[in-house]
């Protein structure tokens, strides 16, 4: 399936929740009754080749595995969750220990192990479902990868589409029509703030051409997320990062924008644990 169609179908699933389901009184969502039952759980993925290697966290990606998970409830409702796998982000040691495809395969297998743990069970809500299976999924991840020190982020990344699907199904089962309607009361206040404005960050990997960075600024991007922590020893990493930042600054230092308080574009530096 073409990725645009893949994402479009997922978006339609989200939209249908808002259009077809009416508002409901969800005050009982904090009760003790099981309100989320998983009758069936399935998933699929497709491999997306990148235009050029994407460098971050001391390594490079050449493809992404896009995952779709579908959960079915007893009332014929379905929840679809979408996710992008990133083994390098989840655990750099796993990424380095096998091929890029091999690492993605391990993460995808782990996601499906989690689905096996959900099928046929009932939970109070998605938070309870994740709490229930997370320790077992983590142990299964250690077994699959052969790494007793497996980073928990590898497990979280494997569970993104599963968690997304749980919330989508839960919303339909509760008759909810929006994000705020499904928030448990314990989290409602913390997640109630909304910014008046947001900016899309333009992500700059290690090897991205300077011409592409300049073009992005000319097209209106004003926040640049620059990947640091390049491969090598700490000394080599620091030297490469300093040189790279100097090159990028030369390209962007004279760019003006009317959408920041300083009139300049902003940089953020992202070392991803390096």
TrEMBL record:
Alphabetized InterPro entries for the sequence: Enolase-like_C_sf, Enolase-like_N
Origin: domain of life: Bacteria
Organism, scientific name: Sinomicrobium weinanense
Name by which UniProt lists this protein: L-alanine-DL-glutamate epimerase
């Amino acid at each position: 399936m073409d990725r645009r169609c893949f994402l479009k179908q997922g978006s339609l699933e989200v939209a249908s929740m808002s259009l077809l389901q009416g508002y409901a009184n969800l005050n009982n969502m904090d009760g003790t009754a099981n309100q989320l039952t998983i009758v069936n759980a399935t998933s699929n993925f497709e491999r997306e080749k990148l235009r050029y290697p994407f460098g971050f966290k001391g390594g490079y990606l050449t493809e992404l595995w896009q995952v779709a998970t579908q959960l079915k409830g007893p009332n014929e409702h379905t929840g679809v969750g979408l996710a992008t796998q990133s083994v390098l982000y989840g655990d750099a040691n796993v990424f380095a220990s096998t091929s890029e495809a091999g690492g993605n395969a391990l993460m995808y297998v782990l996601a499906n192990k989690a689905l096996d743990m959900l099928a046929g069970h009932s939970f109070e809500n998605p938070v309870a479902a994740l709490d229930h299976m997370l320790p077992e999924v983590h142990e299964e991840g250690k077994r699959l990868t052969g790494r007793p020190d497996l980073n928990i982020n590898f497990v979280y990344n494997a569970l993104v589409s599963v968690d997304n699907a749980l919330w989508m199904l839960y919303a339909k089962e509760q008759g909810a029509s929006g994000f705020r309607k499904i928030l448990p009361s314990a989290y409602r206040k913390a997640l109630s703030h909304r910014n008046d404005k947001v900016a899309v960050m333009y992500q700059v990997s290690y090897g991205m051409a300077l011409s592409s960075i300049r073009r992005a600024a000319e097209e209106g991007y004003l926040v640049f997320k620059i990947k640091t922590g390049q491969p090598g020893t700490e000394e080599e990493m620091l030297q490469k990062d300093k040189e790279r930042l100097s090159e990028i600054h030369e390209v962007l230092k004279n760019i003006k924008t009317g959408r920041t308080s300083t009139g300049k574009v902003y940089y953020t530096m992202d070392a991803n644990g390096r």
